[in-house]
Please model this.
Amino acid sequence: MPLLLTLAQLLVVSTVAKELQAAESKPNILFLMADDHAAHAIGAYGGQLAKLDPTPTLDRLAREGVLLTNVFCTNSICTPSRATLMTGQYSHVNGVKTLNGSIPEPQQHLARLIKSAGYETAMIGKWHLEAEPAAFDFYTVLPGQGSYFNPLFCVRGSKPWPQNTFRASGYDSAHSSDAITDISLKWLKERKQKDKPFFLMHHFKAPHDNFENAERYDWLYEDVEIPEPESLRNRGKHGPLQRERFGTSVGKRNTRRNMGQHMFVNPKLADDEYQRQAYQRYLKKYLRCVRGVDDNIARLIEHLEATGELDNTLIVYTSDQGFMLGEHDYIDKRWMYEESLRMPFLVRYPKTIPAGKKLDAIINNVDFAPTLLAFAGVAKPEFMQGRSFQNMLEGKPEPADWPQATYYRYWMHMAHHDNPAHLGIRTKEFKLIHFYGQPLDAAGAIDSPTDPYWELYDLRTDPQEMSNVIADPAYADTLANLKQQLSELQKQVGDSSKGLPTSP
Model:
């Protein structure tokens, strides 16, 4: 009998030891996401803004981890991008095509599955998915877009969502980036299940317009002339051959809505000076918001260092999409053009990810959820359309069957920023865009069709997309091949161009 008891005890001890070892092998996951932070506004990505040193903390993450150069969103607008992150599915599959969409608890797959793997989960900051983030153990989120100063937050409570609220406040005024970080730090210090690894989604509102920075940054870049992109004043042969004036602008090109109006530039100024002042005010406000994001990430890293958790934490930094910072005289996102399409993506986890590397595989945001799940030890469910790129982050070669193109579709036709609905394909060498110009069934789109047209860019010789070569006979074979690839990729992801207008 004593021998049997001893064996039983040993079995229990062995089981517990294996469970503890498995728990210890799983990293904490800190998923950091800003709103509208363009990759070219991060120092580590290079470019003309790097000399301003806008992101010293993010540059540190790039030095100590992996920087991804070909990460793209599948629908460049806030709510659909966040829905793709949470579901691992394209907009036409998860149902969130425009800002009017919602992801209820049963669809909050990423949070639900990571929690099932033994993680304590939290969502803090900008949620923007309408339904209660109930799949998380803890949440404190901005209602809708939220406010920059003294923001209101929704929390779990006795009243129905979203009626339980509190307002952040400070000595003078609380900025959202600071307040969101305060809440995350408090949760990390006081979380109730410290025997478990944590999964924290920390989402900033910044640098979304209207670019309200914390007061301590009011004079940052005050005496600096921000360099302009060449295409701000010289659009070359970019865009539709018809030269229609789509898209809101920095200068007076779009009279309905432009950045000069947002920045209170004197409308009586000559066009060139109006555009110059609008751009300078725009970029300075934007970069001041970016610095607030970067400094608050430093606070989170300092906490992890102080608690000895830094090297046991997978840190991911991204944005919900890119952003046009005056390129081609555009503002906002939505476009399939590079600055809007490209997402920053930095990953640090020294236990398995080599430092100082760059990864140029084509990845899009349907791949984010499967990758985070892989690090948490969770197999990708069949309903997720993306693939894990964990192995590539850890230095393994790109699989032979890895996708060589990414699919994009913007549904919110002519709403807010005068962008016609479009879809397209991007490879490492080319980009083909079909502006089909129809509102279709997209809630929030403007029911006023625009003429369809195509754009083709040779990214090998024209990475700034200054010359639309759609009518160049030298690209006839390339165009035919890309149209075929686009059709095949649409079928693969479950979308279709059936019934859409075409153009010459």
